[in-house]
Amino acid sequence: MKDNIDTLYSQILKLADRIEANWLMYDNSSDDFYKVALEESQDIDFKPLGEIENQLHLLENPYVKSLQHPSTFSEFHFEIFNNGKFLIEILNWNGGNVNCHNHDFSGVQFQLKGRSLNIQYHFEEDKQYGALKTGKLSIEDISLWNEGDRTAVRHGSIAPHAVFHVSKPTTSLLIRTAATKRYGEQSNFFPSLGIHYGVHSTSQRKKATALRLLSKYNTKEFHKTLQHTLSKQSKSENYFMILKLFSILIQKENVFILQNFSMTNDINAQLVENCAKVYASDKLNNQIYNCEGLSDDDRTALYLKTSQFDDDSGLKVNNFLNELKVSQKIDPDKSQDFFLKSLTTQEKETALKMLDILKK
How far is 312 from 319, CA to CA, in rounded Å? Predict the structure, then answer.
């Protein structure tokens, strides 16, 4: 088996050579990279790399070993090729989801193991405030990524998407360009907001961590410090700060901070409203992730419920369900009933509250 993995890796290195040569025909344009990667990779079976033990074997390769670096993207991020212009990486997930985002690269995604639900969105922009823009986030398209599927990954604002890793585990391989500066910073999208993710820097994360710690032993100082911090930060920084602290801020002794902040102006009210919906969606997704007895079809159906924030998106979900094969039994209402019956009384109460928030 190890010999087979070594042979596959040799094929991957030859693939990289072909991609590099043929990409020159497009003058190394990141816009067109996915076309080359799709064409050149069609005869390669990457599936054996969906197994962790085979990835660990590759990790013994001195060149592969030299490519490794810290990353929080997936539970085990594994880079196997990088020439500075494009790279090949493997992402290992044990369920969970990635919120709506766009890319500063283009490429091709290969589903090696498990099922994922891919939801492509459209963000209709209304106003822009620096790194933050307001608008409306609606579902544009829905697809299931099953083992063996290949999907083009488009750049920039063309196809922002969210991914729900339905199976446990799921593994994907990505052939993509390096970050392309002209695409701008990666943005994350929420029910009525789009924000450059770069504002959520390491120092901002540490600030939120420190405030969370402060809230545990000095409530009065936490209130004072947080209110001062919110008065000095940008709108984007405030959004991510409130989102990271939301579970604390909705507690009885702290909720006045959210109420006062919301009453300051319409934008701040919108920041809090978006945080509430994202918190509700994430809370439900965590319950779905941890609920025993759910099938992949059940999780798919439930994730469809937590991914829509407007009536138009509901129509897209219904169209998607109607187009599925008869053999694919995905029924959101039936799965929701089964899910709620699987919860404790307190968990069910929380889930119903979160579903209610998403409907508003």
Answer: 11
**Predicted pLDDT of residue 327:** 52
Identify the pLDDT of residue 293. 87
Residue 97 has pLDDT above 70, yes or no: yes
- For residue 198, which phi and psi values (nearest 5 degrees)? -60, -20
Residue 70 has pLDDT above 90, yes or no: no
Angle at 1 between CA 56 and CA 73, to 5 degrees: 30
CA dist list (Å): 51 to 6, 149, 175, 296: 14, 17, 18, 20
Q: Could you tell me if 68 and 141 are in contact, meaning their C-beta atoms sit under 8 angstroms apart?
A: no
pLDDT above 80 for 3: no
In contact, 306 and 281? CB cutoff 8 Å: yes
Residue 272: partners with Cβ closer than 8 Å, 6 or more residues away: 242, 258, 261, 262
The predicted structure's pLDDT at residue 255? 94
